[in-house]
Structure formats: C-alpha cells, structure tokens
Design a protein that fits this description.
The complex is a heterodimer of chains A (59) and B (314). With 59 residues, chain A is an alpha+beta fold. The longest helix of chain B has 14 residues. Classes of the chains: A alpha+beta (59), B alpha/beta (314). Chains A and B meet through helix 1 of A and helix 6 and strand 5 of B.
Amino acid sequence: MAKILIDPITRIEGHLRIEVEVAGGKVVDAWSSGQMFRGIELILQGRDPRDAPLFCQRT
Amino acid sequence: MDQERDFYKRLSEKGISRRDFMKYCGFLTATMGLSSSFIPRVAEVFAAPKQRPPVIVLHFGECTGCSEALLRTMYPWIDELVLEIVSIEYHETIFAAAGQQMEDNLHAAVKKYAGKFICLVEGAIATKYDGAYGKIAGRTFLEIARDVCPKAAAVIAHGSCATFGGIQAAAPNPGGYKGVGDALGMKVVNISGCPPNPVNLVGTIVNYLLLGKLPELDEIGRPLFAYGKTIHDQCPRRGHYESDEFVLEFGSKEEKLGYCLYMMGCKGPETYNNCPVAKFNDGTSWPVEAGHPCIGCSEPGFWDKMTPFFEQKT
C-alpha cells in the first residue's frame, strides 16, 4: 500500500495537508488537515459585538 | 532599448498606456518621498531592470489578505509589476507546484541565493509549545523562519501579522503568536497595516533596487516615507475636528455632511500611516473617506489597544 503526502497544498489560502492511501491504483483512504490554529473563536469571547465583523473578516 | 520597448508593448496589451504608467511612477516616487527628478529612474527600474533580486515569500499565521491586496488592485498589473522586477522563488499562493516539489523549491532557493535573497514574510509565528500551532510540511513556522530568515540579505515583514503579531496575537493569544522580528530577535523592515497599502511594499522594494539600500525606518522598523505622519494630520476631515463638528451617530445629518469621525471611535490621531494620501484601489478611496472610523491597523497590538473600535477611549 502506497501513501501519498501533499504538504503544502498551494494556490489556496492557509496551510493544508493531504494524505492519501493508494492500493491497486485506487484511493482507499484519505486524510486532510489544517496545519494552523489561530483561535479566532477564543479571541472573540467577551469583546464588543460591533467589533466581531472586523475580526471575522481576517480569518 | 529592446527590453524597454518590449515592456511598453506588454503594458499596452494589458490596457495600460505609457502615460498611465508614468503617472503611477510619479505617484510611487512621491510616496517614497523622492523628488520628481527620480521619476524616470523609477520607471527604468520597472522597464529595464538591471537586476532581478530573488525573493522568497513565506506564509505563516495570517489570512493572505496582504497578498490579495497586492494582487487584486484595480489595474491588476500595476502593483503586480513588483513581481516582474523581482524573481519570485517561492510563494505558496501563486505557485503551481505543491507538496514535495514546493519544498524542494524552497530548499534549493535558500541554498542557491544564501545571503542574497529578500525574504518577504506574511503572517505571524506561533511560539507556544515550540510553535506547534502552525506547521508547513512537518516543520513549524518557527523552525522555517529560524532556518530561512537569517540567510536573507533583508527581511521584510508584510502586514500587521508579520510585523506585530496581528489578529492571532490578540488577547488571549492562544498560540503565542509573535511578529517575525520579535519571534526571531532580529531586525526586519515592518510594512504594517491590515492590509498594508501595496504601494508601501512596492516603494520599499523599488527603494532597494534604485538606491541599493532599504528606506529609513522609524523606531519600530516602519519606513518613514509611509509611516512618518499620523492619519489625523493628513485627514481631509481634520477641519471639522478643529471646528468641533463631529458625527455622533451613523445615519445622521452630520454623517452625511462628512463631519469628523473621532467621536465614533476614529483612531486616526494615534495611527501612523499614509492612507489619506496614498489611498487604496489606485487612489479611489480609503476607510475614513468611505465613512468608517480608522481602526488603527498599522499600530502594534491594535486588536487590543484600539478596541472597541467604535468607541473613543477617554
């Protein structure tokens, strides 16, 4: 069974990693994962709601 | 000569006349704080570049808005010109290669151009848990930055994340994000703003190509030509401020009259940037002109220091 790993995925915004398992020329399993955590949800807690759109634009 | 003729031909194919281009060069030269006698030399940097320095663009914790601001201007090609006068060796958002090929590009470029390339960094670096909150190809942002940045001839931090940590560094800063200079303990050029005006990055690079050095910086690493004055001091609504004419509510008569937005939370008096002069989208407008109070996006820690954005701290 062969494993293909693509990291970084380019031409997108962010840091994405794809792993694919191939058996007999067919994909049998695959995983995708975001490789970055910034915590915008945690940062937003307790702030003035009027500020939220300005924070969320930057995700 | 051929090179120059070819350049103007390509320019007209993109629907930009020579006159438009010279106007842009005039605008860029003025933004850089150089006298108008430099305009032909600035034009030459684009039309007949003597050198194309290698540039490695690193993306860390950010939204890629700074790249977007650079690539998606109204005349898409004009600010993109900066991509013509430099040789981009690595850029995750615009390169066709991916995965291992992309990694090979990075390692080869760093090795080949060690001590010669410009490293342009977009995004903040996670430092908590040895940088585990952000990885590319199995390496943390911190490891990549420690490997690549010290080998560059110059490091330019592009945008508020790369300069001062940006939004992910806002309290409680879950990932321990820091700006590049801070995370690595080295001196970098800080082009701050969220996003920064593309002309400030182009101006910094053209300055480097034209005069062989980086522009003069303020005490927190920002080029003085762009960040030497406050928004307030250059604001077209300043007259209303001096005459006590303030907007007190959105949708009011005062707002229609274009009065000062200070009472609506404008952070112009504490914010150093050239937005009122350079403007965005090829001189179309900028936040205060469009009726939004300045949020202070080019200042360190503005996500905490300048919030709530719509209130004035007294």
